Structures are given as structure tokens and as C-alpha cells.
TrEMBL record:
Protein family according to the UniProt entry: Belongs to the peroxidase family. Ascorbate peroxidase subfamily. Belongs to the peroxidase family. Classical plant (class III) peroxidase subfamily.
UniProt-recorded name of the protein: Peroxidase
Example GO BP: response to stress
PANTHER family, sorted: PEROXIDASE, PTHR31517
Upper taxonomic lineage: Eukaryota, Viridiplantae, Streptophyta, Embryophyta, Tracheophyta
Length: 348
């Protein structure tokens, strides 16, 4: 128990330090009103927060997600990624939706290149507004849409906490600073996550999100295929057969190569354990995927999930817990933030 308390105290120090050193954080709410350690409950968040004010909201979101995914199976994974980009930058406050006329918002940051989901979240929000005007935040809709994206890919439909309010600030420097690039090594990944109050288990479990969806060649081809560590070579940790396949899809020397590659080719739209089998077999798409083998704790988890006969039950339970932890990052509740009628408001 004493060790656990020391670890939690250290983690709080790390998170607070991250907030202090960040250089582009105007407009932040009172820290006492936000979650400091995502593993702990947050005042103002609750499962069923809208039970009285908008009891049908989760059914509405699911129905719209079913319609969207039915028309385009790639939009589910895209909306799952959308939640990551929102929550890891200024917390889960829908600041990714805000528009900067000066092109200095989160949308305009380098990591947001190719991000999809803006129109879909706005569409879902409009449906919710018709039923419950000015009641449900855009931030909560992003959380619910991500959960249903997992569910509609044959993953778990876990309970989500709601009660967030929408933030009013969106800065590209926050996104540039806070989102770990796909070329990250394990030490960097653990540092990024620890700044958000997330641990090694959250890292390895949430990385499992790459079991669905696609990525642009520009996000991995340079460092994995053509210019590893600046030496004009292939990453030696990448399976050679898989690398040859990727080179057929991704051209060398194209900085913004928008060609799409499935992140988990064996089952790209099924939420399962094949991602971990790919990582164990050195066919993880990103450097950050393969980096999970470079830490004894994350490696052990990968190997357990990749083992023959492994059940999804443990992964699904862990995933629900990790998504809950991420959903608690720096949230605005109570009198902080606002409930916007339109998510894509202008900030300048």
C-alpha cells in the first residue's frame, strides 16, 4: 500500500510539472476542478450522467454510428483516433473541434494532418440537439462515438462516464507538444503517457486500438522503410517480408504520401488480438508499435495477448479501464467550460 501511494504521489508530481512547463496554456480552468490522476474518479463525471436530462442520448449516438459505419467502415476507426487526439491535448474537452481563422488551432497542428471525424461528430451533435437542446457536450459525444466505434468492430460496449463540458481554447502548439509521434521509442511513449497520468498498462492496452483502421504512408514510411535513423535504410526490427509488401504501397521520398495502409492487415476492421500477434511477429506498422517489445512490462502483456488460445476477455476488460482513464484526463465539469450547440465554433 505504501509503495502504491508513493507511485501515485510521484505521478501527480509528473502531471502537475507537465502543466507548469507547457508554454501555450492560456484559458485553463482551475486545476482543482480537473482530474489530476486519470486512474481516480472525477467529481462531475458519472455513468448515466444524462439519465434524467437526456435519457436517450446513448441510443441516439449508437444509431447514428451504425448508420455512419454502415456507409463507410473506415469511419469507426477514424472516430476512435479522434478521441485520442481530443483527450491527449488539453484533455477531453472537444477542443479539437474548434476552428481557428488564423490556422493556429489543434486542427492545424502537424499531428492532425489526415484526421477525420469533424463532420461526423457535428452530424451526431445535431441529432442530439434535436432531442435535447444545449444539454449534451461535444466532448461527451466524442467519447460515446469512440466507444461505439469499438463496439461496431466486434469489440466491447463498455460503460462510459459522461458529464464533461466543452473547452474554449484550441492551440496547435498543444497538439504538437502533447501527441506522441508514431516514430516514438518506448522511453518517449512512457514519458508522454506519464505526463497525462497514464501508466505502462494504459500505453500497451490503448496501443491495441491499432487493431482497426488505416494509416497514411507518410506517418511511417520514412523511418520504417527508407530512412531509418537517418541512414537511408530499412528499420532492422521490421519483418523483411512485411517491409517488402509495404514498399509496394508507399513510395520513397514522398513527404505527404496519402496512400493508405491497413494497420492490422489480418483483420483491419475487427477489434481483436491480432494486433498483438503482429507486434510479436515484428509486423507492427509503426515504430511505436514495435517499441512495446522494448520494455519488460509492455512486452509481457504483448506476449500474453499474442499467445495461442488467448481470450479477448482480459483485453476487453483492460481496454474499458484504459479508455475510462483516458476519458478522465483534464476534464471540465460543473461550471467550467460550456455546452456548445455547434461543436465547430471559431476561437479567433
Amino acid at each position: 500500500m505504501a509503495l502504491r501511494q508513493q507511485q501515485q504521489q510521484l505521478l501527480v508530481v509528473v502531471v502537475v510539472a507537465a502543466v507548469v512547463v507547457a508554454s501555450c496554456r492560456p484559458g485553463r480552468a482551475d486545476p482543482a476542478a480537473m482530474s489530476v490522476l486519470p486512474g481516480l474518479p472525477v467529481a462531475g463525471l458519472a455513468v448515466g450522467f444524462y439519465n434524467e436530462s437526456c435519457p436517450q442520448v446513448e441510443d441516439l449516438v449508437l444509431a447514428e454510428m451504425q448508420s455512419l459505419v454502415g456507409k463507410d467502415k473506415t469511419i469507426g476507426p477514424a472516430l476512435l483516433r479522434f478521441m485520442f487526439h481530443d483527450c491527449l491535448v488539453r484533455g477531453c474537452d472537444a477542443s479539437i473541434m474548434l476552428i481557428s481563422r488564423n490556422k493556429t488551432g489543434e486542427r492545424d497542428a502537424i499531428p492532425s494532418y489526415g484526421l477525420r471525424g469533424y463532420d461526423e461528430i457535428e452530424h451526431i451533435k445535431a441529432k442530439v440537439e434535436d432531442a435535447c437542446p444545449l444539454t449534451v457536450s461535444c466532448a461527451d459525444i466524442i467519447i460515446m462515438a469512440a466507444r461505439d466505434a469499438v463496439y461496431l468492430s466486434n469489440g466491447p460496449r463498455y460503460a462510459v462516464e459522461t458529464g464533461r463540458r466543452d473547452g474554449k481554447v484550441s492551440l496547435d502548439c498543444d497538439a504538437n507538444n502533447d501527441l506522441p509521434p508514431p516514430s516514438s521509442a518506448i522511453v518517449d511513449l512512457k514519458t508522454y503517457f506519464s505526463f497525462k497520468g497514464l501508466g505502462w498498462k494504459d500505453l500497451v492496452v490503448l496501443s491495441g486500438s491499432h487493431t482497426i483502421g488505416r494509416a497514411q504512408c507518410s506517418t511511417f514510411a520514412s523511418d520504417r522503410l527508407y530512412n531509418y535513423s537517418g541512414r537511408v535504410a530499412q528499420d532492422p526490427s521490421l519483418n523483411k517480408t512485411y517491409a517488402a509488401h509495404l514498399r509496394e504501397l508507399c513510395e520513397p521520398g514522398v513527404a505527404n504520401d496519402a496512400a493508405m495502409v491497413e494497420m492490422d492487415p489480418s483483420s483491419p476492421y475487427t477489434f481483436d488480438l491480432s494486433y498483438y500477434r503482429a507486434v510479436r511477429g515484428n509486423t507492427g506498422l509503426f515504430t511505436s508499435d514495435q517499441a512495446l517489445l522494448d520494455d519488460p512490462w509492455t512486452r509481457a502483456y504483448v506476449e500474453r495477448m499474442a499467445a495461442a488460445g488467448a481470450s479477448t476477455d482480459e483485453f476487453f476488460a483492460d481496454y474499458a479501464a484504459a479508455m475510462t482513464n483516458m476519458g478522465r484526463i483534464e476534464v471540465l465539469t460543473g461550471d467550467n467550460g460550456e455546452i456548445r450547440k455547434v461543436c465547430a465554433a471559431h476561437v479567433d
